[in-house]
Design goal:
The chain has two domains: 75 residues, Glutaredoxin; 116 residues, Glutathione S-transferase Yfyf (Class Pi), Chain A, domain 2 (Up-down Bundle), CATH 1.20.1050.10. The protein starts with a strand and ends with a helix. By secondary structure, it is an alpha+beta fold. Helix 1 packs across helix 6, helix 4 runs antiparallel to helix 5 and helix 4 packs parallel to helix 6. 54% of the residues lie in helices and 9% in strands. It contains eight helices and four strands; from the N terminus they run βαβαββαααααα.
């Protein structure tokens, strides 16, 4: 049985749960409370020396980092496929997933952290800058989605990497501009997927 060491609110854990759902894989969740620094416990450090979640245990293997975990799941459980067969297209998926993690998910995390501060401590200039950065990512995606239903052509790990933060945009005060028609259509397609509806339910967003 697959075991996922998970913190439900982590977008990186959500990214893995989306792939598990897409592949209809059963798994056990092990809750790791980041608020209590349980990810730094000796047991967790044996699984991941960086002391982070998610960690996936399967067939005696312990794999960490959401991107590495999802590629492992793709290799080990290839149906339905979430990576294209062509090597160039696979590289494109990997680049978009990296871009999502570092320029969208991480930036959204900075914004969320700022908004969690007491009202008098919130730096509004910083908030506006983070929101502008997120819109710039969406503008980039608008160009990349021209003539395509999904970022890399077929639905893939690249699309899944953007979903956790996309679902949180309203809470972050970020509205997708009407002019980004490709992004809006893409978002609608993603919201129709059973895996995304399941994640929305888990997060209390529906």
């Amino acid at each position: 049985m697959i075991k996922l060491y998970d913190f439900p609110q982590s977008p990186y854990c959500q990214k893995v749960r989306l792939v598990l759902a897409e592949k209809e894989l059963s798994f056990d969740k092990v809750f790791v409370d980041l608020m209590k620094n349980e990810q730094k416990s000796p047991d967790m450090l044996r699984l991941n020396p960086y002391g982070k979640v998610p960690v996936l245990a399967d067939e005696g293997e312990a794999i960490y980092d959401s991107t590495v975990i999802n590629e492992y799941l793709e290799d080990e459980y290839p149906h339905p496929p979430l990576m294209p067969a062509d090597s160039g297209a696979r590289a494109r998926v990997r680049m978009f997933e990296d871009f999502a993690d570092n320029s969208f998910t991480a930036q959204g995390g900075l914004l969320a952290a700022e908004l969690r501060k007491a009202a008098e401590q919130v730096d509004q200039d910083r908030v506006q800058r983070y929101r502008t950065d997120l819109i710039r990512v969406l503008e980039f995606l608008e160009r990349q989605l021209e003539g395509k239903d999904y970022i890399a052509g077929e639905f893939s790990l690249a699309d899944l990497a953007f979903i956790p933060r996309m679902l949180q945009l309203p809470k972050l005060g970020v509205e997708i501009p009407d002019r980004l028609r490709n992004v809006l259509s893409w978002t609608d397609r993603l919201l129709e997927r059973a895996s995304v509806r399941q994640l929305q339910q888990e997060l209390g967003l529906v």
